[in-house]
Amino acid sequence: MPQTLTIRTAPLPVTPAGIIVIYAGEGMPPRGAAADVWATTGLDFARVAAGAGFKGKQGQVLDIAAPNGLEARRLFVLGAGKIDPDKPATAAAWTDRGGSLAAKLLAANAETAAVLLDGHEAMPAAIAELAAGLRLRQYRFDKYKARKKDDESANSLTVTLHVPDPAAADAAIASRMSVAEGTILARDLINEPANVLGTVEFAERAAALGALGVGIEVLGEAELRALGMEAMLAVAQGSPRPPRLVVMRWTGGKPDVAPIAFVGKGVVFDTGGISIKPALNMEDMKGDMGGAAAVTGLMQALATRKAKVNAVGVIGLVENMPSGTAIRPGDIVRAASGVTIEIVNTDAEGRLVLADALWYTQEKLKPLAMVNLATLTGAIGVALGSEHAGLFSNNDEFAAKLLAAGLATGEKLWRMPMGPAYDKLIESRFADIKNSGGRPAGSITAAQFLARFVGNVPWAHLDIAGVALGSPSSETNAGWTSGFGVTLLDRLVRDNYEDK
Ligand code: BES
Ligand code: MN
Ligand code: ZN
Questions:
Q1: Would you give the distance in Å from CA 12 to the centre of its chain?
Q2: Tens-digit pLDDT profile for the chain (500 aa)?
Q3: For the Cytosol aminopeptidase domain, which residue ranges apply (predicted)?
């Protein structure tokens, strides 16, 4: 049974619980109501902290078992890091704090915890980030573990956040948790193996957002053919699983305002096709729909928090398989835009899907701006590791908005260069362009390829191949995939496109 996490708020002061949690800043004793809690133990804070080597740094914990005077199994003093009233912590720092707290509560097998948040910690937005961090760190994908470990942690954890203004905190938490659940939907979709989540099944999961008021349109093979989407169809033709293009519309904004569009690469499994990949780590390619998963998670987030924005999500779902019906290197196809493509490498399939999905989005949905997310190139991981996703854009202002959202949320981006000089690498002898320029500037030529299917609309391409899969564990993620992109793009919407 998966562990359930309940987060609720209550007024001050803290009430008895299995574990009581207070915070202390770097080089400072607990202050305000936290100081009162500490005082009941009768312990000398400076002495205990020095003895335990606790300095109040972010991530540190001072763990007092069976504290005198408190009805609790344990008292945790958590390090809040440097507290500078002139430089308030970023949202991401608060999410990390929540993640670190979850790790400590899970390790202690807590069933109930009471967390005291007052003073500088009590801003509703900060409390909401802490709650999101708790949930994101507690998430596990263990549905296929038939045998559970004996030392299993408690199967439910209830965390009560004691705050000065519970009503204000509740509203902020509800909104932020919608986004965290969007990230978790993205993680679930990415973690799901490809035998379970094929193109049709993914489309069904996306269509389920209809229940939240999201308009859903699912295009099948016949419709894609009628639209001339030979690039996307070419990838799909090697698999018995049919392609799907799903359009998700959320209309929470003014009726006459054009939408912001999000487009995702949804390759449910990427074998490479006839240009087949090596066996080592090929299982990771079940996550080659990470862009589409982020778009779906984002649309769920916007709908559940009833964002005052018009947004569309478009995902191109295919499977890239080698077979007797698969595309061959050298095949030439005509994309829906009319551009002809020589497919020199069947493993450069994501850009073929996006070529048609981007063209469709801009022609049919007339967005005011368009962002696509894709696990597009291994090369982006070589360049940036898992610290930053690659950002490619035709518009400096739009790029700046995305970079800012990245810094605020911790889903960081690094802008990469683009320019006509790179187009030479994807010139084809036989067609307008070829789908791979080989190893040099592999991520950039992929972006140049996508740009051929984008007109003048402000556009950004996020290459998330290095950040979405095989994530090193972080404060907010204990699993294989981070669900990268949902928090980032929700922030982009909140800060720039939402009616106030
Ligand atoms: N899905 C892969 C990119 C990828 C690699 C994602 C590793 C996540 C982790 C993509 O379709 C691909 O195969 N790209 C090729 C492009 C090349 C053939 C031009 C690559 O990166 O090698
Ligand atoms: Mn590929
Ligand atoms: Zn791929």
A1: 33
A2: 568 999 999 999 999 999 999 999 999 999 999 999 999 999 999 999 999 999 999 889 999 999 999 999 999 999 988 888 788 888 999 999 999 999 999 999 999 999 999 976 679 999 999 999 999 999 999 999 998 776 666 789 999 999 999 999 999 999 999 999 999 999 999 999 999 999 999 999 999 999 999 999 999 999 999 999 999 999 999 999 999 999 999 999 999 999 999 999 999 999 999 999 999 999 999 999 999 999 999 999 999 999 999 999 999 999 999 999 999 999 999 999 999 999 999 999 999 999 999 999 999 999 999 999 999 999 999 999 999 999 999 999 999 999 999 999 999 999 999 999 999 999 999 999 999 999 999 999 999 999 999 999 999 999 999 999 998 889 999 999 999 999 999 999 999 999 98
A3: 345-352
What does the block give as tokens for 380? 């982006």
- Tokens representing 494 are 């909140």
To the question of whether residue 349 is assigned a binding role by annotation, the answer is: yes
Alpha helices (runs of H) in 6-162, residue ranges in sequence order:
32-40, 45-52, 91-107, 124-138
The H or E element containing residue 76 is strand 74-79
Per annotation, catalytic residue among 277, 308, 334, 415: 277
Distance in Å, CA 352 to ligand 1 centroid: 12
Dist CA 269 CA 248 (whole Å): 22
Q: Measured between alpha carbons, how far is 314 from 293 in angstroms, rounded to an integer?
A: 11
Q: Which tokens go with 329?
A: 């290197």
Residue 296 and residue 185 in contact, taking contact as beta carbons nearer than 8 Å: yes
Residue that has been written with the tokens 């001050």 in this structure: 12
Does residue 476 contact residue 99 with C-beta atoms inside 8 Å?
Answer: yes
**158 has which bridge partners?**
6, 112
Q: How many CB atoms lie within 10 A of CB 443?
A: 23
Residue 277 is a catalytic residue: yes
- The CA radius of gyration of the chain, in Å to the nearest whole number, is 24
Structure tokens at 81: 């890091």
| Whether the model pTM is above 0.90 | yes
Contact between residue 401 and residue 291 where contact means Cβ atoms under 8 Å apart: no
* Any ligand 1 atom below 6 A from CB of 183: no
Beta bridge mates, 160: 8, 114
Nearest residue (by CA) to ligand 1, atom 7, is 378
Quickly count: other Cβ atoms within 10 Å of residue 101's Cβ.
26
**What CA–CA distance (Å, rounded) separates 276 from 279?**
9
Give CA–CA dist 375/391, Å, rounded: 12
**Residue reference for tokens 């009503």:** 167
Is 442 near ligand 1, meaning CB less than 6 Å away?
Answer: yes
104 included as an active-site residue: no
Ion ligand 2 neighbours, Cβ < 5 Å: 270, 347, 349
**Tokens 């999101």, residue located:** 132
Task: Please tell me which residue in 31, 187, 249, 351 is annotated as part of the active site.
Answer: 351
